[in-house]
What does this fold into?
Amino acid sequence: MKDTTIADKIIVALDVASQEEAIALIDKLPDVSFWKVGLELFVSSGPEILAILKERQKRIFLDLKFHDIPNTVAGACRAAAKYNVDLLTIHSTCGKEALKAGLVALEEGAIAVDKPSPKLIAITLLTSLNSRQLAFELKIPLELPEYALHMALLAKETGLAGAVCSPQEVEQLRMSCGDDFLLVCPGVRPKWADGGDQRRSMTPKAAINAGADYLVIGRPITASDDPVAAFARICEELK
Ligand SMILES: O=C(O)c1cc(=O)[nH]c(=O)n1[C@@H]1O[C@H](COP(=O)(O)O)[C@@H](O)[C@H]1O
It folds into this structure.
């Protein structure tokens, strides 16, 4: 039998190139209650997929990872408010002024369309980067856990609802940011799945035990030969 509380902690990433492929996946996986629409699908097929998910009573994580100057992120957040999604992303590295401008505009945009405001959550450090890349490509002089924590605290101090972080940092972020701060973890890999381009991964069970509120999982489910069985297996492993 389906365990709703466990299944509801999994956000499945709809990283496909067309609306048709997205709808096929959504309909194949009726037990998935929370879907992530990211750059690939949004850029290729536009916002219509959000209405399609709403019609099916799904929760939506709109992952557009805004990263721009305050005026531009404010405009984008104000516009995004009309989609009535649950979660929206922005990069912490925009800085406090842009994070604040985005948050205020999102709330104003939601009021203007008489919808609840989506929760704005900040990317701390992409899970595809490791400490070597942080030091030698990005030239960030902090240790990786310290940097991720700093980025999460920047978001928290600005009033954002939460952060996106790798499962490897979630325990530390949970301790420092408190229980009310939403922590969403991509970079999650069951032992039987391919790691792909993810560099700071943990298993679903370890990520939840470390304090993640939600797991974002894409290819281990969507690129599997049997997405239904893969999703069920992950839910089973989370019990
Ligand atoms: O914001 C995100 O969701 C995100 C942040 C991050 O640091 N790393 C990361 O992988 N993601 C997203 O999480 C999903 C992970 O997909 P898989 O690697 O296929 O499980 C992708 O849609 C990424 O865009």
Q: What stands out?
A: The longest strand covers residues 59-66. The chain has twelve helices and eight strands. The mean pLDDT is 97. The radius of gyration is 17 Å.
